[in-house]
Design a protein that fits this description.
Layout lengths: L1 E5 L4 H12 L4 E5 L9 H5 L6 E4 L13 H13 L4 E4 L1 H6 L7 E7 L8 H10 L4 E7 L3 H12 L6 E6 L3 H10 L5 E4 L13 H6 L11 E6 L3 H16 L4 E6 L7 H7 L4 E3 L5 H5 L4 E2 L1 H6 L4 E5 L2 E5 L3 H12 L13 E5 L3 H12 L3 E5 L3 H11 L2 E2 L12 E4 L3 E4 L2 E4 L10 E4 L8 H8 L3 E2 L2 H17 L5 H7 L3
Parallel strand pairs: 1-2, 1-8, 2-3, 3-4, 4-5, 5-6, 6-7, 9-10, 9-11, 12-14, 15-16, 15-18, 16-17, 18-21, 21-22
Antiparallel strand pairs: 11-13, 13-14, 19-20
Helix pairs in contact: 6-7, 9-18, 13-14, 13-17
């Protein structure tokens, strides 16, 4: 089940929020702690089309209730007399409020600062409080901090367990909680109505992660990070998995270090981890072997579990090279439009090295420049490229400009790339904000340059990524539906 939390401030709007939430969930949580005036709980939940869970949390539990403890207790007693399906109570409060009617008791253990200890003692206390469900809440900024909560939810217990994971890995926990049979997972009705910062909305769970098809047999593919590129990748791949009836889904991963990651991936039975260009060098540390380009650039797009360890693959350079050649004007399969063309790459990271590799394979003449002069010189020397000092970038005549960074970054000083370097007839490819267009793209068009469309590169890249994971072609409909909204 999915539980949507509504946090109304007005009694009148509460019924509207409950009505709207009930259309998209299995259980509505009515949080009383933000109401400005004392509510009539019976009236508020009357007519609700779905079961209601009532809560009223103190600030130390993550709530917003500003009244006295006696006032909070009075609200909870009034709520239980209204006979909602569930009422959430902390252990101290549960000892003071007896069981009433058919309302089931959710005994809540919460921490706003760190994972809770003494889990087994908590189960014993929940039994003493006559609980029907036990709930744990604590911060989960990374996979490591979410791990103990996942361990609790995934184990078979006499008392059902639900978890509320606060922070960046809350979405990860929700998807895994679904797989491991948690009675329900939490979501917000829409942006701006989250019970806590970063809580996923029901729309995100439905439209991006297609959570309703997740079951105990679902195989998750990890995806490092949660930026624009990562979310777009997840949405497209999940749409493709769904259309081809593959019981697979993307699982966002935000980890602190690589030390425990291989073990956690094995336990979760995750066979591959996707890394978009901004995360590729970090994920590369997971690999024991890699293809030529990933090894040279220390950047990968995906690592796949093999019998002898994790193998890295760099995929981005091929679609980028194809799109670049098409923009210059490739007339036949044997045509080499980059031959003897002067190409300048801005940036000195793994993406820059990957693209330099591709251009050199097509006999292009590659130079590299970066705000980090030392790193640029090292990259140029290692990859046998021409090094251009950043002060000379705008005076160097080239045929092709390839942008891999949004700024010429000088440590603490970030200098935007000046479009004055673009001249009519040049070819410009900017992948710094993939899959989106950067402002430089529009500037290049206005100055008469041939432009590589980032969306074209991204579409080709995602197709290659999907094939490397499944051996099948990416359905065109999946890409189109994945890029909507």
């Amino acid at each position: 089940m999915i539980c949507i939390s509504v946090t109304p401030e007005s009694r009148q709007l509460a019924k509207v929020d409950i009505y709207n939430a009930a259309n998209q969930c299995d259980l509505v949580e009515l949080c009383l702690d933000r109401l400005h005036k004392e509510p009539d709980v019976k009236d508020m939940i009357s007519g609700a089309k779905k079961p209601v869970l009532v809560s009223c949390r103190q600030p130390e539990e993550g709530g917003k209730f500003e009244g006295t403890e006696d006032e909070r207790m009075a609200l909870l007693r009034q709520a239980i007399l209204a006979e909602p399906a569930y009422i959430e109570l902390d252990p101290v409060t549960a000892q003071k409020i007896p069981r009433f009617g058919k309302t089931q008791r959710v005994i809540s253990f919460a921490s706003q600062t760190r994972p809770l200890g003494n889990i087994e003692e908590s189960f014993d206390e929940a039994v003493r409080c006559k609980g029907d469900v036990i709930k744990f809440t604590w911060p989960t900024e990374t996979l490591e901090t979410a791990w103990p909560l996942l361990a609790v939810v995934s184990q078979k217990r006499a008392m059902p367990v639900v978890g509320l994971a606060l922070g960046r890995s809350g979405l990860t926990f929700s998807l895994l909680g679904r797989k491991y049979g948690s009675p329900w997972i939490y979501a917000a009705l829409e942006k701006g109505m989250e019970a806590f910062p970063g809580q996923p909305t029901v729309g995100e769970l439905d439209n991006i992660y297609r959570w309703r098809q997740v079951d105990s047999k679902t195989r998750f593919i990890g995806i490092a990070g949660a930026g624009v590129a990562e979310v777009a990748t997840s949405k497209i791949l999940n749409a493709a998995f769904d259309q081809l009836n593959m019981n697979m889904r993307c699982l966002p991963l935000d980890f602190k270090s690589l030390e425990q990651l291989p073990k956690m991936l094995d336990i979760l039975k995750i066979p591959a981890v996707i890394a978009t260009p901004c995360m590729g060098r970090r994920v590369m540390g997971l690999a024991t072997t890699g293809d030529e380009v990933s090894t040279q650039s220390q950047l990968c797009d995906v690592v796949i579990k093999q019998a002898d360890g994790w193998q890295a693959h760099n995929l981005i350079w091929k679609p980028a090279l194809r799109a670049l050649e098409n923009a210059i004007g490739k007339k036949s399969a044997d045509d080499r439009p980059l031959d003897r063309k002067n190409a300048m790459i801005l940036g000195a990271g793994g993406l820059a090295v990957s693209l330099a590799y591709g251009v050199k394979k097509r006999n292009g003449l590659v130079s590299i420049a970066s705000g980090d002069e030392v790193e640029a010189q090292k990259t140029a020397q290692a990859a046998e490229l021409r090094y251009v000092p950043s002060a000379k970038v705008y005076d160097t005549l080239v045929d092709v400009v390839i942008v891999t960074v949004p700024n010429l970054d000088y440590g603490t000083k970030k200098s935007p790339i000046n479009p004055s370097m673009f001249r009519s007839g040049m070819t410009v490819m900017d992948l710094s904000e993939l899959p989106d267009e950067s402002p430089l793209i529009e500037e290049a068009r206005m100055r008469g340059c041939k432009v590589v469309e980032p969306a074209e590169v991204f579409a080709d890249y995602i197709g290659g990524l999907f094939k490397s994971l499944t051996g099948q072609d990416l359905p065109a409909e999946a890409f189109a539906s994945g890029l909507t909204e």
